[in-house]
Design goal:
Elements: E1 7-10, H1 20-27, H2 33-40, H3 56-69, E2 72-76, H4 81-97, E3 102-106, H5 119-127, E4 130-136, H6 143-152, E5 155-159, E6 174-176, H7 192-208, H8 215-234, H9 241-253, H10 260-269, H11 278-295, H12 299-306, H13 310-344, E7 355-358, H14 367-378, E8 382-389, E9 392-398, H15 405-411, E10 418-421, E11 425-431, H16 435-449, E12 458-461, E13 463-465, H17 472-476, E14 492-499, E15 502-506, E16 511-516, E17 519-524, E18 542-554, E19 557-569
Parallel strand pairs: 1-12, 2-3, 2-4, 4-5, 5-6, 7-8, 13-14, 17-19
Antiparallel strand pairs: 8-9, 9-11, 10-11, 14-18, 15-16, 16-17, 18-19
Helix pairs in contact: 3-7, 4-7, 4-8, 4-12, 5-6, 7-8, 8-9, 8-11, 10-13, 11-12, 11-13, 12-13, 13-14
C-alpha cells in the first residue's frame, strides 16, 4: 500500500489485539510481561553496575592516583552535544571529588581540526602539563595520537562508543567502551556521554568506598546524569535498553538540576510548566549546544555547562540562542542551493543511488544538517563537503536505514584522508584533488549495495486503526512510550476511513490542517498539486492517513492530534 509520497509498511506482521497501547507494544516486540513492565517503567528500572563496564576500574584507579599525586588530568572531548556533555560530566565529578584537582579541557575546532583525537592537540596538552589524558566520545581509532601519547610520556585513558572497525584495541592505560570485542556488558550501544557518566559513577563509588553514596555526591551524580541524558537523546543512539533508562531519569530530574547552565537553557527555550521531553532536548536545547561548535567553537557551550555563576549562565544561554538563529538562516540558504544542484545535476534520478557534492562556499559546521535534509527529501545517502583548509575538504554524511555509512567509507577508504562515525551518520576528510575519485567510488559502492527499490521512501507504522480507536484515553495511554527517539519512535498509526470535516491551508499555505470528529491533523510542507490539496478534500471525504498521534490541548481543551506523514483518498 502507498500514499502520495511513500510506501506504507507495517512495523510487524503480527496482528495484536487489546488496547491501543497493547497493539503498539506488540508491534515493537514488547510482549512478555517482564519486558513490558521494564519498558513502561524506565524510571524504576536499575542501571547496569558501572563497575561492569569494560576498562572502567583501571581508568578510575589511574585517575584517583593522579588526583592523589597532584598530577594534571586532561579531558579531550568532541564538539557535539554528546562530547560537550561528556566533558562537562567528568570535569564536574572530578572537581566534586577533589576541588583542587588540576583539570584541563580540550575540544577540537570543528572547522580547523574536525572530529577525533589529533596528534598536535596531544602535544599541546602535554606542554600545558597534562600527565593523564582522558578522551570522551572519541579516540578509539586515533592511532597516530595514541603513538604521540606514548612518545611524550602521557598516560591515555580512552572512553568512547564509536565502532572500532578494523582498528586494533588500543594499547593504552585503559579503554572504557561498552562494545569492545569480547565484552559481556549487557548494553553495548551507549552514547559517549553515558560512558563518561558510568566512569564518573564508578569514580565516586571508589572514593566513597561503596555504592551507598553521600547526599552531596548523589546530588552531583544526579545533576550529571541530566547531562548524560542530553547526550543520549541528542546523539540519536537507540532509545531502548539502558539508554532509555538514562534518558527517562535525566528528563525526570531536568527541572531539579542545579547546574546553572542547564537551568539557563531551560529558562531560555522551555515555557513555564511545560513538560521537558526528548523532543525538547532534540529540537531546542541540543541545537543550541551544537550551534556553538558549528559556527564558532564548542568551548562556548562547555563553559556554559561548567560555570557555577547564574548570571553568567543566563548570558551564555542567550548567546547560544543567537548563534543558533544564525545557524538556522545558514542552513536554509545552503539547503536551497544544494537541492537545486541535486536536481540540476540529475542526482535524484533512478540511476543515482547516492548524493555527493562539494562546494567552496559551504560552511562545514552545518553540512551535516543540510545532508540530513537532502537525505530526507531525496531519500538516498547524502555526503556534503566544504573547504577545511588548503587543499582539503571536510564532509558530513547521512543515510537511509538500508545503507550503513561506516561500511561504505571503509570500502572506499583509499580515497579519503580519514573518516569515522556510525551507520547512520558519519564524517570524512578528502584532499581537494581526490574529490572526483572519491565521489565516483562512493557512487559505485552505493550502486552495487543499495537496491533501487530502497530509494522509494517508506513509512513504517505500528498498527492499523479506525477513527473509533482514537478515543482520548486510548491515545493518552501512548504517553507511556516516552521518552521517544531512535528505535522507539513516537507512536505512528495507519488510520483508515477518516472523515474530513474541514481542510484548509495554514502557515503561509505550506501546511495542511484537517479537522475530524474528536481531533485535528496537520501535514507540514504537504505536497501541493496532489490529493492533499485542501480543495480536493471536501467535507465528508474519506481518507487513509499515516500519522504520529498524541493528545494535545487548545485553551485547556484536549483533542487528538495527528501529525500527518502521508495520506490517500479512498
Amino acid at each position: 500500500m502507498r500514499g502520495i509520497t511513500s510506501r506504507w509498511v507495517p512495523r510487524s506482521e503480527f496482528k495484536a489485539e487489546g488496547s491501543l497501547l497493547d497493539r503498539v507494544l506488540a508491534a515493537r516486540g514488547v510482549t512478555r510481561q517482564t519486558a513490558r513492565a521494564e519498558f513502561l517503567q524506565p524510571l524504576e528500572a536499575q542501571l547496569h553496575p558501572a563497575g561492569a563496564l569494560p576498562g572502567v576500574d583501571a581508568a578510575a584507579t589511574r585517575l584517583l592516583e593522579a588526583i592523589d599525586a597532584g598530577e594534571t588530568i586532561g579531558i579531550y572531548g568532541d564538539y557535539d552535544v554528546d562530547g560537550v556533555t561528556a566533558t562537562a560530566t567528568l570535569v564536574r565529578v572530578l572537581r566534586a571529588i577533589a576541588p583542587k584537582a588540576r583539570v584541563e579541557t580540550y575540544i577540537p575546532d570543528r572547522r580547523a581540526e574536525g572530529f577525533g583525537m589529533h596528534a598536535e592537540a596531544v602535544r599541546l596538552l602535554r606542554r600545558r602539563g597534562v600527565d593523564v589524558l582522558v578522551t570522551v566520545d572519541c579516540g578509539i581509532a586515533s592511532e597516530a595520537a595514541h603513538a604521540v601519547c606514548h612518545e611524550v610520556g602521557m598516560d591515555l585513558i580512552i572512553t568512547d562508543h564509536h565502532p572500532l572497525g578494523s582498528h586494533p584495541i588500543p594499547d593504552v592505560t585503559a579503554v572504557v567502551h561498552p562494545g569492545l570485542p569480547g565484552s559481556d556488558y549487557p548494553w553495548p550501544i551507549l552514547s559517549g556521554s553515558a560512558v563518561a557518566w558510568k566512569l564518573a559513577r564508578h569514580l565516586v563509588s571508589k572514593v566513597e568506598g561503596s555504592d551507598a553514596l553521600s547526599d552531596a555526591m548523589r546530588g552531583v551524580l544526579q545533576d550529571t546524569l541530566c547531562l548524560a541524558g542530553m547526550g543520549v537523546i541528542a546523539d540519536i543512539v537507540p532509545l531502548v535498553g539502558e539508554n532509555r533508562r538514562i534518558a527517562a531519569k535525566a528528563l525526570r530530574f531536568m527541572r531539579e538540576c542545579t547546574i546553572p547552565g542547564v537551568a539557563a537553557l531551560i529558562l531560555e527555550c522551555v515555557k513555564p510548566g511545560e513538560s521537558i521531553t526528548s523532543e525538547t532536548i532534540g529540537y531546542r536545547i541540543g541545537p543550541r549546544i551544537n550551534a556553538a561548535g558549528r559556527l564558532i567553537h564548542a568551548e562556548k557551550a562547555l563553559n556554559l555547562l561548567l560555570t557555577d555563576d547564574d548570571a553568567e549562565a543566563r548570558a551564555a544561554a542567550k548567546e547560544l540562542t543567537e548563534i543558533n538563529t544564525e545557524r538556522q538562516k545558514l542552513v536554509r540558504a545552503m539547503t536551497d542551493q544544494a537541492s537545486e544542484r541535486v536536481v540540476a545535476e540529475g542526482l535524484d534520478g533512478p540511476d543515482k543511488r547516492l548524493i555527493m557534492l562539494a562546494d567552496e562556499s559551504w560552511h562545514i559546521g552545518v553540512v551535516g544538517i543540510v545532508a540530513a535534509k537532502l537525505m530526507n527529501r531525496f531519500h538516498r545517502p547524502t555526503v556534503l563537503l566544504g573547504p577545511a583548509g588548503p587543499d582539503v575538504y571536510r564532509g558530513s554524511a547521512r543515510t537511509i536505514s538500508e545503507y550503513p555509512l561506516h561500511e561504505a567509507f571503509e570500502a572506499c577508504s583509499q580515497h579519503f584522508v580519514g573518516h569515522g562515525g556510525h551507520a547512520m551518520a558519519a564524517g570524512c576528510v578528502v584532499a581537494t584533488g581526490d574529490i572526483p575519485a572519491a565521489t565516483e567510488a562512493m557512487l559505485s559502492h552505493a550502486t552495487a549495495n543499495l537496491p533501487p527499490e530502497h530509494l522509494t521512501p517508506s513509512l513504517q507504522y505500528d498498527c492499523e486503526v479506525t477513527p473509533e480507536d482514537l478515543q482520548m484515553a486510548e491515545v493518552a495511554s501512548l504517553e507511556a512510550l516516552q521518552p521517544c527517539g531512535r528505535d522507539n519512535e513516537t507512536p505512528r498509526l495507519l488510520v483508515r476511513g477518516l472523515k474530513v470535516e474541514r481542510a484548509r491551508p495554514v502557515g503561509g499555505g505550506d501546511t495542511l490542517q484537517l479537522r475530524f470528529r474528536g481531533g485535528r491533523g496537520v501535514w507540514f510542507s504537504y505536497p501541493k498539486g496532489t490529493d492533499a490539496d485542501p480543495e480536493r478534500l471536501p467535507r465528508g471525504a474519506l481518507i487513509d492517513v499515516v500519522a504520529d498521534v498524541k493528545v494535545d490541548a487548545w485553551q485547556g481543551t484536549p483533542y487528538v492530534d495527528l501529525n500527518i506523514k502521508d495520506l490517500r483518498r479512498q
